[in-house]
Amino acid sequence: MQNALKLNNGVEIPILGFGTFQITDPKEAEESVTNAINAGYRHIDTAQSYLNEEAVGKGIQRADVAREELFVTTKIWIENTTYEGVLASFQRSLDRLQLDYVDLLLLHQPYNDVYGAYRAMEELQEAGKVRAIGLSNFAVDRAVDLTLFNKTVPQVDQIEVNPFQQQADTIPALKEEGIQPEAWAPFAEGKNDLFHNSVLTSIADKYNKSVGQVVIRWLVEQEVVVLAKTTKPERLQENLDVFDFQLSDEDKKQIATLNIGESQFFSHSDPEQIKSLASRKLDV
């Protein structure tokens, strides 16, 4: 698989993925997925909580690409994070996606019965319904804890990584445990005026690239899987065009100065945030 990384179970994951978070309009989600695949993306990321699995599935079906060429991820939401909840809700996700299997299944948040849920995911993997299993938004200690009390080392941990939350300690710690880091919100959803940041624009101008391309390249060079979202067709191709330049050590030092070292969205250890997330019922 071109521009792919090998997970701890031998499955290859494309290093560039198309994220579908907040693409809630069914028609737009379907068209965006089809356009992304036609532009060259082979990695599509969705989740139960995005409420767009059905549209994503339709977009996949519309694209003229064989299923085995695609890498499709979905995630189990908190209310389904139990042994029984995973088995029941995963089948509903498969039905919405119109797929016989997914390539990667993640626990979306580190709450509820993650141990029982993970055992169900291990069973789905053994049954061939899932090629790889993993986590999302788990701190390294939580990932290690889960590993110690289950059979399978998670293949992936999807975490927030961007120039303002660089996860400089977390990324190597996950790799040390054999877990592949994957970045959500690589552009921080434009927070702190990222796309006009003077450090990033200066580097982008040097290589005749966009700020978005510089951020993606910065992650690729760390061997972190990148999930970039856009609904603009011209940006789809641009975000893939990051393999013809290389950042210098000085570039990387400059980007390191942007690190604030905290989430640009919310804290997963904040009790009120946990209560808010856990109260969100999807009924999916």
From TrEMBL:
Signal peptide: none annotated. Residues 16-259 form the NADP-dependent oxidoreductase domain. The active site is at Y50 (proton donor). It comes from the Bacteria. It holds the Pfam family Aldo_ket_red. InterPro entries: AKR (IPR020471), Aldo/ket_reductase_CS (IPR018170), NAD(P)_OxRdtase_dom_sf (IPR036812), NADP_OxRdtase_dom (IPR023210). Keywords: NADP, Oxidoreductase. Belongs to the aldo/keto reductase family. This is Oxidoreductase. The lineage of its organism: Bacteria, Bacillati, Bacillota, Bacilli, Lactobacillales.
